[in-house]
Amino acid sequence: MAGIFRAHSLVSIKILLIAAVLMASALPGRAVTILRDPDIEHALRQLALPLINAAGLSTNIRVLVVRDPKLNAFVVDTKHIFIHSGLIQKVKTAEELQAVFAHELAHIANGHLTRRLANRRAASGAARFGLLLALAVGAGTGNAEAAAGIATGSASSASRVFLGHTRAEESSADQAALRYMAQKGINPKAMADVLDYFRGQEVLNAARQDPYIRSHPLTRDRMRAVHGYAAAYKNAAKPNPEAQYWFARAKGKLSAFLNAPSFTLRKVKKKDGSDIAVMRRAIAYHRKPDTKRAIAEINKLAAMRPNDPYVHELRGQILLESRNYAAAAQAYQKAVSLAPRNALILAGHGRALVALNTRSSNAQALKVLVAARARDARDPRMMRDLATAYARAGNNGMASLITAERYAITGNLKTAAVHAKRAAGLLPQGSAGWNRAQDVLGAAKRAG
C-alpha cells in the first residue's frame, strides 16, 4: 500500500466532482474521497483487463475506488472507471464485480460519453496540471482537505454535461457488456444478480436510493432483457480461480482498512492460514495498534509471498507508520525491485527515505521521487515529499516549483502563484522548470 494517514486508513485524496456526475444532489459540487492503494488497484485491474480487451478499448483505463458506502459505479471520461467502496463490499463474486466493469466499459465503447466530453471543452486553467474529469484533486496530506478551485460552470450547465444515462443507453450497454463477458468466459448471470441488488429502489424517494439508480435507470423491461441475454450466453461461462483470488484480495484488504479492527479479527478465523487472511490480520493489528503482532503477521505474509511487490509495499507501510524508517525503506526497496514502474510504490519508497533523513537517504529519495512524479504527476502527497527532497538538496527553486504545482493540482491557484513566482525568481530563465512556473502563473491569472 502506498501509505496511510494518521488514522491508519487507506491513502485518501479528496476530490471535488460536480454533483451531476454522482447524481447525488442539486448542489453544484460534492466532495468525495478517492482511496489509492497499489495492491487494490492492481487487483481490480486484473478483473477489468479481460473486459477492456473485449471492448477493444485502451489498456490504460484505470479503476479508482471512491470511499462511499452507497452502491454506485460511473464513468465520466474514457480513461477511468469509478466504483464506490460500498459496491465492492456488496457484491459476492468476481463475476458480479466484472459485470459492473463490463457495463461501464460499454458506455465508453458505445460512445455514450462523446457528447458530454465534447461539451466540456471549456476547462479551468488548472486542468493543465493534471486535474482529471473536471475535478480538483485535494491535498494528499493528513488533513486531505477538499479542493475548490475548479471552474465547471453553473449547476445547470453541469447537469446538461453529465446527465445520467438514458434507458436506451442502458439497454445497449447491457447487451454489449454481456457480449464482453461471454467472450471472456465470465458468467453473464452475474449481471442479473447485480441488478437484483437494486430492484425495487426506483419506487423509493431520491434521498433513499443508491446513486446507481439515479444514473442507471432500472426498469422491469431492462431486467427482463438482461435475464434473457444471460440465459442465451450461459454456456459461455468458465470457472476462473485467479479472478476469484484477486476479487477476494481487493475486497478483503478494503474491508480491513475501512472496518474496525475488532470486526476484521472476528471475521478472520485464527486458524485461517491463507495469505489473504494473514494480510487482513496484519492490517487489523496495525490499526489497533498492536505493532508487535502486526509486524509478526506481515513478516509471515512476506515469507509466504516473497515475490509479491504489494506484500512488501504493505510491509513497508506498516514499518514506516511504526516509525521503523530504516526497515521500511528496505521493504519498499524490495517492492520497487519487483514493481519498478508502479508510481504509488515509488512514492512510498521515497516517503520512507525522506523520513529516514540521512544524507544518503535524502539523495536517494530525490531520485526515487523524481521517478514517481514522471509516472504520475497528480499525487499531491508524493509532491510534498519531492519538494522536501529538493529543499534538502539545496535546490530551493525546484522545491518552490513542485510546491506550486502541488497547490495547482489541488485547485488552490492563489497559493500556487505565490510559490510559482518564487520559483521563477530562483530558476534559470528559459529553463524547463522556469517554463513550468510560468504555466502555473498563467493558470492562476486565467482563473482570476
What layout of secondary structure does this protein have?
Blueprint lengths: L10 E7 L1 H4 L7 E7 L1 H17 L7 E5 L6 E2 L5 E5 H6 L3 H16 L4 H5 L17 E2 L17 H7 L5 H17 L5 H10 L12 H5 L4 H14 L7 H18 L2 H7 L7 H13 L3 H14 L4 H13 L3 H14 L4 H14 L2 H17 L4 H13 L3 H14 L3 H14 L5 H16 L1
Helix pairs in contact: 2-4, 2-11, 4-7, 4-8, 7-10, 8-10, 11-13, 12-13, 13-14, 14-15, 15-16, 15-17, 16-17, 17-18, 17-19, 18-19, 19-20, 20-21, 20-22, 21-22
Q: What does this entry look like structurally?
A:
With 448 residues, this protein is α+β, with helices and mostly antiparallel strands. It has 22 helices and 6 strands. It has a 6-stranded mixed beta sheet. A hairpin with a 5-residue loop joins strand 4 and strand 5. Helix 2 packs antiparallel against helix 11, helix 19 packs antiparallel against helix 20 and helix 20 packs antiparallel against helix 21.
